[in-house]
Amino acid sequence: ILFTVMDESVCARTFCGAGRECVSTDRGEPVCRCLQVKHWVCGSNGKSYRNHCELHRDACITQTKIHVEHRGHCLEKPTKADVSPIVCFLSDRDWMRERVIQWIQKEVKDFDGVFVSQAYDDGDSQLDSNEFLRFLKHNETALNITYSDTLQTNLLLRSLCVDALIELSDENADWKLSLTEFINCLTPTYHPTERKCALEDEVFEDGAETQMECNKCVCACGNWVCTALTCNDTDEGGEDEEMTEEEWSRRVAELNALQVDSLS
């Protein structure tokens, strides 16, 4: 009882911030200490703390700025090997095609492709990827083509799958669909070929993965798609930097050149 009274007397004029309490030291001096409660938070330094107070205490001791990233324990950061490029697989491409065909069968009588060409192309009677995306955007509610809960990822995948769909029917490889190519692409009786990737005399199925130094490459719609990290031969702990667009294009071109050589 005596110690309790002394604690209350010593701490009577001592104010402690949120998450801390005043206690008396062995010398009878007031000191603020973090409450022994566990409300785990993740700091901006990637370290988990039992509560906000422990985080601010560590920031004070280390003289660094640390803020709360989110509640709960910090999530483990993926290693370089776990980082994968965002790609449109054959199944994603074919699903988009099926959705558009279903919409056409429901909304358009005697489909001849002209209505799309007149409404969305820039007057050249050909659809490029941007014009095809505009067609999807205009009919977004009816088509309901959603690949991801994340808006940015969903828009990127939709764009990638449009490119894959155009490549599917683009006979003259100009990345535009003529009226005939557009009709062929969306004819229900047309069955797209399952393109594969090749590397060093081996053929890989859609979704196959390979490693190119520190970068992961994925086979998607017949093309190798890779992450874009510059691989540094430094000590452990050194972070890889992103490649420039020119470096990335050159490396992927080299990989796909190997594929062409293997298929020929």
UniProtKB/TrEMBL annotation:
GO terms for cellular component: extracellular space. InterPro entries: EF-hand-dom_pair, EF-hand_FSTL1, Kazal_dom, Kazal_dom_sf, Prot_Inhib_GrowthFact_Antg. GO terms for biological process: cell differentiation; regulation of BMP signaling pathway. Residues 26-76 form the Kazal-like domain. It comes from the Eukaryota. Keywords: Disulfide bond, Signal. This is Follistatin-like 1a. It comes from Pundamilia nyererei. The lineage of its organism: Eukaryota, Metazoa, Chordata, Craniata, Vertebrata.
